[in-house]
Amino acid sequence: MATPWTNWARTASANPHRVEHPASVAELAEVVAGASSVRPRGSGHSFTGIAVAPGVAVDLDAWTGVVEVSGTLVTVRSGTTLRQLNALLDVLGLALANLGDIDAQTVAGAISTGTHGTGAKLGGLATQVVALELVLADGSVARCSADERPELFQAARVGLGALGVISTVTLRCVPAFVLHARESPGRLDAVLEEFDHLTAVEDHVEFHWFPHSDRVILKRNNRVDGPPAPLSAARRFYEYELLENGAFGLVCRVAKALPATTGALNRVCGSLISERDYSDASHRVFVTPRRVRFVESEYAVPRAAVHDVLRELRAVVAGLDRGVIVPVEVRVARGDDIWLSTAHGRDTAYIAVHQYLGMPYRRYFDAFERIASAVGGRPHWGKMHSLGAEALRDRYPRFDDFRRVRAEVDPTGKFTNTYLDRVLG
Fold first, then answer.
1. Which of 137, 139, 293, 404 is in the most buried spot, having the most CB atoms within 10 Å?
2. For the chain, first and last CA: distance in Å?
3. Which residues, at least 6 apart from 109, have a Cβ–Cβ distance to it below 8 Å?
4. CA atoms of 97 and 87, how far apart (whole Å)
5. pLDDT-derived band of residue 122, with 50, 70 and 90 as boundaries?
6. pLDDT digits (tens, 9 = 90+) for 24-58
7. How far is CA 227 from CA 103, 167, 279, in A?
8. pTM for the full model?
9. Residue 287 CB coordination number (10 Å)
10. Closest CA to 283 of 117, 160, 144
């Protein structure tokens, strides 16, 4: 009997018939060819049921590491986590050009769900992919790139695990670089007023808004020459472990136990923001430890719509009978041409709403989804939403092309599950 599986946020679970841990492409191909239903499950950091395996679950924890390095092109096995990849690249004097703030995901899971960081001149992680190798439904191994099977490549870069099991990923990296990080308190209206300017002049900019207040944390990261000047180990432990995880986790537990205190606690948290100014290797700046569990929904909206969406979201928060304790996160990305990328064809703002695990969130998330949908918002494939294939088809110009390629490489639906049935039809 396979061990029951639950994702990080405890929003999805599975009882697969068995779990396979292939350690080679040949073993992976054998597993896929011999199963009638199979899903890769990554690290479980998606909030949706995208990784739920109704039949055979493929865990790629034995299939990790770098395969080949050619200049700045690095081919890596698909089960490698971003944390492992960052460490391996560091040794090679290389780095990923952009990252999100969590590094627990496998590289295959991160690109397959459209994981991204922030930066108006930069795309999501999938835009750094130059080639993929997949094991298809019949057990055959297919390599794809912009020149080799280009339609499969365009579909598979953000493929939701619906086309096959990725075995290797070739990434275009950059020489290792240092980021200067500046984190400071601010006011929401003031930050929104200069947001377009900030995204134009800063390499990476984002802000976290504390609902029930007008307080924000503004984060600006820029590439600099020279050696890093990181936070001391003591200060890093104090601020990230004791404050952002330990103390904030305690605040969340109080809000869960005493809901009437949520708004006041949120305002207190927003008022206690301190400034940080340091520089470090890029991946140490991009990534932040996240030990407080939450649920999350995120929508990609046109850049021009971010002000209207946040204005309406503020009104929604003010009217909630149960408060929100976890901040709202706002980031940006350059448009791309990947078929199911949430930034397909347009420069994008990402707005993510959260709630502490176990606290009510449905009314809040549903209202946010209505606001974002009204401006053509696209939900993150790995975060909570209620949209189905018909609604999503209207938001992705190449949606039917993706479905056509999927039908060609997986005609019997070997890789599907309930979530994919809903979002892809």
1. 137
2. 31
3. 40, 42, 43, 45, 46, 51, 115, 161, 382
4. 14
5. very high
6. 999 999 999 999 999 999 999 999 999 999 999 99
7. 23, 36, 8
8. 0.96
9. 18
10. 117
